[in-house]
Write a structure and sequence with these properties.
The complex is a heterodimer of chains A (504) and B (313). Helix content of chain A is 29%, strand content 23%. With 504 residues, chain A is α+β, with helices and mostly antiparallel strands. Chain A has a seven-stranded mixed β-sheet with strand order 8-9-10-1-11-19-12. Chain A has a six-stranded mixed β-sheet with strand order 14-18-13-17-15-16. In chain A, helix 7 packs across helix 9 and helix 12 packs antiparallel against helix 13 (447-463). Chain B folds into two domains: 2-72; 94-306, MetI-like (MetI-like fold, Orthogonal Bundle), CATH 1.10.3720. Chain B is built from twelve helices and no strands. The chains are: A alpha+beta (504), B mainly alpha (313).
């Protein structure tokens, strides 16, 4: 090694060091324009086309970019968005939408009736093996009556159909919706870098109340262990869904907000395989489980106990009394097992997706609780991808712990999957009384009657012990104290437009 | 010239074997890209339609042929999950991995050569003994653990950098290089320890050879003997090692990226494996394999330059 070269190397390394240290010191200073960095656990490894995006993590971010004719509020209501008014006629068979004046897409072009028709038709198109929005198979026609009016006619009357009209309206002219998302929402897309970030900025021509924060970066924090470090170090300002332990660690320096995840966590049982095809066995498992104990162990007692496939955010459909269908009672459980022909218990496998810690923890407590009635449960951790193909699609499993959420603000979003012919009925539940109650609920145009039938469905699921219902998981959002305005929704979304700086 | 042609041919054959192997391996493990693309919205009909669209129903070798043909034409395909051209993703991330590896390499040389020479010069001294012991310890620490330690000590205690505070090179090159300072050190340390050990023993054995005595007898100072005569000869085994270490560092950077939260090729590789995003996996593998092969070729060339006796046939 020549001495000259050595000097160069030394100079290089010292410069690097200087830059490194200098860079850290001046990191957070001088950024006065409003901006926020939000940590998200997984990248948007998905199409950015709102109709094709499938991951919940993608949809919750895209929520800020797109809007439908109507949009949900944090109270669970639907308010007009791209449409300024709507009218339901013929008992829920015909919906007439009046488009709002002056709504623009992010590229500056105005929203036309053609764009609306294009968006709805695209989601109802069956040429790719089924409509993108399954409920759209009920659409008879979408017609433009004048420049400001679009009429959606259904095949069968459905008074809940408005909830599906949250489907994003996108410009017909966009050639690359997969990678270049253009919508009408309060934020517009700027850039993305795989596994790094997803950047949006305020859309200044938004028709409604404009967003408060100008620049928003969603930063991918794939390593769950470093989330607290990232928050404390200031590289992210907010993280939704931190664990109970992390929430406790952060509670001094951050605002930790508590809500619910709005999903139904349960031990989902494959009702078509032995021994779960016997209602007595399923009930025995329900008697063995104490949801409160699970919540105490995995999240300091936070969470909401559930007794059926419905969570409290749905308000009128939720039936708290179903939580008491089964009180932990080992003798009764053993009795039921003996009746069913398993006096010595049996053993089965709980398949759990390995990327969801709360579900893994829950499964571990379940194993202990089942041991009390002589039933041996074995946990099998699988990759999310394998879970999707083996459990969800091929239904090749005995039981699984997951959370099932609602894709829209309708009772059907949670309850339809348990009808015997539903394509997403992954637990193979089949009950004629349930099918009938559900069909009645769909057919009824009177809200009270509809509610009654939905409640009947929930009651059947509970008494028939379709699954071992556990809880609606608690959600903790850690927010830097410089920001405020976070709102929980009954759906799986993050509304960034409402966030603002405390100083604003 | 014939030599170069032969080398390049070997490289192509190696790349072909690597890609074919990876492609086949992927089709043997469970899971399929369509499932992760459709998620919980998958219906058998939609899955089938998408599989047909992506050509996943064709025999594996046909699929490989299609991929290879596209690749040779410069088309790396489109990512299944991101729906963006794979080449864009690679161009975006390759500089991260290359910068980090090169920085680690510079670190290694910067640490290993002075320390190794010093230890050899003062063989048996107190400092030499301390170096030997510390060396043994560092060699035994795997890079990811070194990464965790460094994050803890320099990031959490001394707060010299913000863990997870990675800044893209497109945003601020200075901060980018700054953030890679410690990760590259984590990669470099174990390799530097090995290089020190090698250089030390190599220099010590050279110092015992006859030409050294001759050099002294001609009135050279100890310093000039060491730098002008011994070092050049002692470097030959070290260069072999440095080349191997550089290839290793490319692979090592994949792990270190996870520890420090750096979105480079490694992160892309891992997530695309779990998403079964074949086009991305293949492209990243080709990149890494090419880097390794090129490094090996460069080492061969440097060999010839340092010691003309080693023929390149």
């Amino acid at each position: 090694m020549k001495k000259g070269a050595a000097k160069w190397l030394l100079a290089f390394m010292l410069t690097t060091l200087a830059v490194a240290l200098g860079g850290c010191a001046g990191d957070k200073e001088g950024e006065s324009s409003s901006q926020i960095t939000i940590g998200i656990p997984q990248d948007l490894e998905d199409s950015l086309d709102p109709h094709k995006a499938v991951a919940a993590g993608t949809k919750e971010v895209l929520f800020n970019l797109f809007e439908g004719l109507v949009k949900p509020t944090s109270d669970g209501d639907l308010i007009p968005a791209v449409a300024s008014a709507y009218e339901e006629s013929e008992g829920g068979k015909v919906y007439t939408f009046t488009l709002r004046d002056g709504v623009k897409f992010h590229d500056g072009s105005p929203v036309t009736a053609e764009d609306v028709k294009f968006s709805l038709d695209k989601c109802a198109d069956t040429s790719n093996g089924g409509p993108l929005v399954p409920a759209f198979s009920n659409i008879e026609s979408v017609t433009i009556t004048d420049d400001h009016t679009v009429v959606v006619t259904l095949k069968e009357a459905d008074t809940e159909f408005l909830a599906y009209m949250t489907t994003a309206i996108i410009p017909a002219a966009n050639e690359n919706p997969d990678t270049n998302p253009i919508g009408t929402g309060p934020y517009k897309y700027v850039s993305r870098s795989p596994q790094e970030n997803f950047v949006v900025e305020r859309f200044d021509d938004y028709w409604g109340e404009k967003a408060n924060i100008e620049h928003v970066t969603f930063k991918i924090c794939a390593n769950a262990d470093s989330i607290v470090m990232n928050l404390e170090g200031g590289s992210i300002d907010m993280f939704a869904r931190v664990t109970a332990t992390q929430a406790a660690e952060l509670s001094d320096k951050f605002d930790v907000l508590e809500g619910t995840m709005n999903l139904v966590q349960a031990l989902y049982l494959n009702n078509a395989v032995e021994p779960f095809d016997d209602v007595r066995v399923r009930q025995a498992l329900c008697y063995a489980v104490n949801p409160q104990e699970i919540m105490d162990i995995i999240s300091d007692g936070k969470g909401t106990e559930l007794g059926s496939s419905m969570f409290p955010a749905f308000g009128k459909y939720y039936m708290e009394e179903l939580n008491d269908t089964y009180q932990q009672n080992f003798d009764k459980a053993k009795e039921l097992l003996a009746d069913a022909g398993y006096p010595d218990g049996f053993s089965f496998t709980i398949t759990v997706p390995s990327n969801y810690q709360p579900h893994i923890d829950t499964a571990q407590v379940l194993v202990e609780q089942f041991a009390n009635i002589g039933v041996t449960a074995n946990i099998q951790l699988v990759e999310w991808d394998s879970w999707l193909s083996d459990v969800y699609t091929d239904r090749n499993f005995e039981s699984t712990v997951v959370g099932v959420d609602a894709s829209s603000l309708t009772g059907a979003a949670l309850l339809q999957r348990f009808t015997s012919t539903a394509s997403n009925n992954f637990i193979n539940y089949s009950n004629a009384a349930y099918d009938e109650a559900f069909a009645n609920a769909l057919a009824s145009t009177d809200d009270a009657e509809k509610t009654k039938y939905y409640k009947e469905c929930e009651t059947i699921l509970a008494t028939d012990a379709a699954n071992v219902y556990i809880q609606d998981l608690p959600e903790f959002v850690a927010l830097n104290k410089n920001y405020t305005g976070y709102e929980f929704y009954p759906l799986y979304v993050q509304d960034i437009a409402k966030l603002k700086l405390v100083s604003q | 010239m014939r030599y170069a042609g032969k080398k390049i041919l070997t490289m192509c054959v190696t790349l072909f074997a690597v890609t074919l192997f990876v492609f086949l391996a992927f089709h043997m493990i469970s899971g399929d890209p369509v499932t992760s693309m459709l998620g919980t919205q998958a219906t058998p009909e939609r899955a089938e339609a998408l599989r047909e669209e992506l050509g996943l129903n064709d025999p594996v070798l046909v699929q490989y042929g299609r991929w290879a043909a596209g690749f040779l034409k410069g088309d790396m395909g489109t990512s299944y999950s991101y729906r963006m051209p794979v080449s864009e993703m690679i161009v975006d991330k390759l500089p991260v991995t290359i910068t980090m590896t090169l920085m680690a390499f510079v670190w290694m040389i910067l640490i290993a050569i002075p320390v190794g020479l010093y230890a050899a010069k003062h063989e048996g001294g107190v400092v030499d003994r301390i170096i030997t012991v510390v060396n043994q310890i560092i060699m035994a620490v795997p890079p990811f653990f070194a990464g965790i330690l460094i994050t803890f000590v320099f990031g959490m205690i001394f707060r010299l950098f913000t863990p997870g505070g990675y800044v893209s090179y497109q945003v601020n090159t200075g901060k980018f290089v700054g953030y890679l300072f410690f990760p590259s050190l984590a990669i470099a340390l174990p390799k530097a320890a090995m290089a020190i050990k090698l250089l030390r023993s190599s220099v010590i054995s050279e110092l015992k050879l006859d030409y050294v005595r001759t050099a002294y007898s001609r009135g050279n100072s100890k310093r000039s003997v060491l730098y002008r005569h011994v070092l050049k000869n002692a470097m030959i085994p070290v260069i072999t090692f440095l080349g191997m270490a550089l290839s290793d560092m490319i692979a090592g950077s994949i792990i270190i990226e996870q520890v420090f939260g750096i979105p480079g090729l490694g992160r892309i590789l891992l997530t695309s494996i779990s998403n079964r995003d074949y086009p991305v996996v293949m492209a990243v593998i080709v990149c890494i394999a090419t880097l390794v092969l090129v490094v090996n070729m460069i080492v061969d060339v440097i060999y010839g330059l340092v010691d003309p006796r080693i023929s390149v046939e």
